[in-house]
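Margin note from the TA: students keep mixing up input and output lines. Inputs are the sequences; the output is the structure of the whole complex. Example:
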Amino acid sequence: MSILSRRRVLGALVLGTAVLIGGVWLARIDYAAKVSTDVIDLLPSGERSPEIALVRELASDSEARVMLFVLTGPDAAPAPQAACTRFAGELARHRAFEQAIALGEGAPLESLGREVFQRRFTLLLPQWLRERAQAYRATGGSPDAFASWLAADSADHLVRFLSRPEGLALQDVLPADPLLLVPGALERMESGLPLAGEPAASAIGAPARVWGKIAASPLEPAGQEPVFEAIEGALAATRTEFPGTTVAYTGVNRFASASRTRIERELGWLNALSAAAVLAVVLVLIRGAHRALHLAPPVLLAVLGAWVFTTLAFDRIHVLVFVVGSLLTGVAIDYGFYLFMQAPAAPGEDYWAKVHRLRKPLLSSCLTTVAGFALLLFSELPLVRQLGLFVGSGLLCALGSAVLYFSMVRDPYLPARPLPAGLTPPAAARSLVRRALVALWLAALPGLFLVRWRDDIRELQIPTPELQLEDARIRTLFTGASEPTVYLTQGPTLSEARDSLDHLDAWLRMQGPRTRFSNLGAVIPTGPEHAESLAFVRAHPEFPDLLRGALVRAGFDTEAFAPFFEAYGAYASRASDSELAASVHALGASMVGPLSLLLHDGRPLAWFVTLASPAPGKVPPKAANSVSVDQLESLNAIFARYRKSAMWLSIIGLTMIGLGVLLAYGARDGARVFSIPCGVALGLFGLCGWLGLPLNLFHLLGAFLGVCLTHNYSIFTVTSAYLRSPPPISVRLSALCTAASFGVLALSAIPVVHALGVTVAAMVLVALLTIEFEHFAPISRKA
Amino acid sequence: MIRPVLMVLLIAGVPAGLAAAVAVPPVPENRLAPDDPAWTRLAGQLAGERAITADFTEERHFSFRKEPAVLRGEVRLSSERGLSLHYLGPEEQTVIIDRKGSLVRTAAGDRAVPEDPRASAANFALIHLLRLDLAPLAQAFELYGRRVDGDWAIVLVPREDSLRRTLGEITVEGSGPAVSRIELRRSATQRVEIRVATPRTGAFSAEELRQYFR
């Protein structure tokens, strides 16, 4: 076997083994679990900001599983309540749904009310006692006389309560609740109660609404198609009884499903268009274009390597990594172009001698780029980390596989098609254009001071305008025109979150009478309140008798209040410190429908939900430990932090690349080499500054990617300049291919992808122009 | 059982001694067809009055108290704005019942009342009953009625069992085009009666509309 044959076998063996191992690994992956389309997965799981931690928890917890339905009859009027009941029943029977409730029947409120009533001494007595104790202190009475005063005051309150509208509404409750614990809780909830999910049920012409909670995560396939099928089935069953009924619905799963479809569709056509654009460039610039197919295997191996290493390193990867990373091909193909299109130094030059000759530009460009992308592994943003590994590992694989693959090719040289005569401008014109470019660059630089950053978390989302409109319409039917602002008051335990809730309540009350709010603080006492209540019950066993006497004096039939005295006696005999936690747990379990979202007793975060309308424009005080989930500003501030962090990483990465180049090529030539990537990036950002175009994190990442690409071109060109050769054709070919494929990305409707595409394509084209107009001519002359 | 929203039932009146002049036992022979021409004519007379104001006295009888709670005030009925009950004492407040639901207005501000189907039914009944708008009422209630000379009485019995237990029967009595008494009766010890004095007609002023309606 000849040396060449042995090399081929060895190369095929190494590459074949790599493909086999990589292919087996990729075939074993559960892609549904591994690849995420959820915007929340773009944010760090260990985010230190409570806002993001809460949003992550909310998105992955039950809140994201809520679906809202509006039923309409054949005449476009709201469907009858019975149709809602039937539809909700059908949904609830399906395994895809955990709950489904027809709103307007009062069931969620009744369930909550029943539980609160049964546990009224544990849950309501503490706050009632604290309020009455405050009122007593205001009278200046002696602490010893508090129980007597409390009994008389309670009877007096009861008499007055009977004159109020609520007195009639609650008359069945009063024999078991003469202390008015339940009316007191309702009063504390005030008019905020309708915010909690049962608004205007009686209004004539009110929409027919169903609230549902799906069993699986809306971000997983199990929470999408099976759910949509269940809805179709429930609607069909409802129509048998109520012909002509239609349903409109919204939920996170609809957005997730639409995003997935959109990304898959975009992946398809972007890749196809990108391949077509690259093919067109190749056909124009390469003689014997069919031989250009040899460029494909190294690129495919690079992508395979990138997938393998990224899926090995990360448990969950966002699909945008693959969307953006698919353009790794634009960088990976550079090494193939350079190796394949470099003419032999002499006829019959051995392939490995050629590789040895080109090792410096190949290694310099690859390793410095990989070093730059490796820095992205230190980013806070998972997407950036994943992208760093994807591109970095992909480039190493690209270089390795290109070197090995072309060792197997019989004639590892692909000549370029010569440019038609007359296309190359004269030297004087090139010099003029070069000076014009430098002048433009100098003019653009001050624009850097005008650069505006727009850090908007919504840029991460896949836009779905039709669904967003439908979602807004349906939510308005559930919450009214002014959707309440949702505050999450969090703590490591529910008890600590409850303490913070007092601060939020106090702050909301200070916002004025127009601000209505509702939360479970009205029916859940704080730990200290509960302890004081226990102390009172234990210290005043005479209180029931005192109350009996007061009720008789106020004209009541005390026999009628037997249910109260029995329940109070039972409570007093068994009350303990642990009862509060048990009661809150039972309360949480009793809540169904929209009310079930008001409380989350989880680890490491527990929270209470407060609904407020109209929402104060200000941010709650720190002591309230509360954030508004609508506070885009706070999320955007975090997004800005990521951008700044990425910028610092980019600057450090650029410094490393620059130092590497200076070490490899010396100070003067290194500076000229590095001036292309650096200068182009600064010049383009300066231009954006002048034009007032806002930039974001992804423009920054695009610029970083662009720097790495143009850095390759710069190194390959300077190598030719040392040999007094014109810029290698591979650079032109590579740049045009990359510009074409990233230019296609600029057509994407996904803001992130668009930003990357525009930035990289612009950088590559400007860098190519600079190179074509003899940026390295002085080096060439010197050499 | 908590029913925070049945405050609508406050509409009623008249002690037992001043009970209806026209008794209407809910028996088949007293069944009332919603399109009965005689009742339609009477409804037309009532509908002709776009704004009615009258003093009222309300007695609330509770099973756990020997004496009823007595409240006094002014009732206003607007064909466009619904029903408004302005209680003058012991605590001044206004209860407004309209197509949007019910609302309690006090010096401290408005208090929207969370709704439930039973309260909705009561609101619905009262709004239509005070105009003798019988056709929509017939869908949710069995209607009974009698007319003797110029006096008349109507009894509404909810068709649904749960509503029947909660609301009981609603009786409205009148003389000519004026409503004189309304009773919501769940049992002998749980009832609310409103006795309405001779009504005054005439459009509401802008201030009245602002103060007593929404």
